[in-house]
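Task card 7
Instruction: Convert sequence to C-alpha cells.
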Amino acid sequence: MQVAVIMLRATTASLAGLLVGLACTPEPAAGGPEILLRGEWIDIGVYDRSAEETCAGTFEYLDAYAGVLAAEFGVDAHLGLYRWYSRDRFAADDPCQMPVLGCAGINGMFTTAMPLEHEVVHAAELKSFDFSTSCPSVISEGLAEVYGTSGSTPSASDFDRLEGLLTNPTGQIASRDYDIAGRFVGFLVERYGLDSLLDMCALAGGWPEGQELATAFETTFEATIPEVLTEFEAQPNCSYEQYRSHVYACGAASPLPGVVVGAEVEVTYELDCASEMTLGPRDGVLWIVDRLEFEQADYLISLVDEDGKLAPVELALTKCGPCSELPWAQVFPADVIIQSFDAGPHELQLRAPEGYAGTLTLTVFRLD
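Output:
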C-alpha cells in the first residue's frame, strides 16, 4: 500500500476537523462526507462507506490512537477529519492527486482503509509543525511506519538505497522504500529522541536539497549523515514487530489499563466484529489489542475458546522496548502453549480471519 503526506489546499471540509466530542450526524454536509464519528482527536467521515463495514470498536480505537500520537508529537489539538472512501469513489475523486492509496494534508486524512494509523501519524506530524512544514519524505514516511502498524521488515537490499534517499531527499519516496525508511527512522528516534528528530525536520524543511538535509543532521545530531549511517548499520537486525513503536499499548499515553500478571491471571476476550473489543477487518484480519505486564519472567500462556478447545487464533506478543534491546517478538498459532521470557510490559494481539466470532479465555501462569 503506497501512502503519502502531501500539503493539500485547505477546503471548507477541513473545518469539520475542528469539532470535538462524540456525536453522529445522519446527513452529510453539502458536498462533504457523512460524519460517523466526532471524536476527541479525529472525526471520521465516509464516502460510499458505512459503519457496518468495520468492527464495532474500530472508530473509537482510531480516535484513541490519534490521542496517543498527539501526546507523542506534543500536540494538544484535534488532528482533523479522517475521510474513509470506497475504492471506486476514491479513484473517481482522486483526493490525493497522485497514484496512492492514502494521504494526509492540511485538510485531513484520505484513504480507502479502515483503520490506517499510518495517515494519522502524518496528521500528528503536520499538526506538530502547525502545518508550517513537514519532515522530508524519507523521514515522514519512516515516522508513519514506526508509529503505525502496517509496515514490513526491510530486506538486505533495501539498505543499499538508503544513502541515496538521504543524499537526494527532494520529492516523495517510492512505496518500496517505506520499510527501510521506517527502520532508519526507528533508529533515529531511539538514538536521538522524537523531539530532536522533529527539530532536525524544522531545520531542513519539507523539501530540502541534499546539502540542506546534511547540514540539518550535523547541526541537530552533531554527526554527519555518513556517520549516522555507519552507526545505524551496526545496529541489531530487528524485525518490524521489534522496532515499531507499539505506541498504542506501550506509549506513555496508552489508553489501555493493561493486565498485570503476577502468579496467574485469566482474561476473557470477545473476538467478534460485533464486539467493541474488536478492530478491523483489514486485509482480511480481525484483531484485539491489549497490554500484559509480567511481574517476573517465564510464564506459560494458553488460549481456549468457549468450548475449552485451543482457539484457531494467532497470538502475537511483543515486549515493549527499543530495537537495541532486541525486544522479544513472536507470533504463534494459538494451538500451542507459549512461554514469555521477559518481565515487563508486552503488547498482546489476538488475530483471526475476517468472519471469525468467538469468546476466548487467555490464561497466563508462572512456571515454578
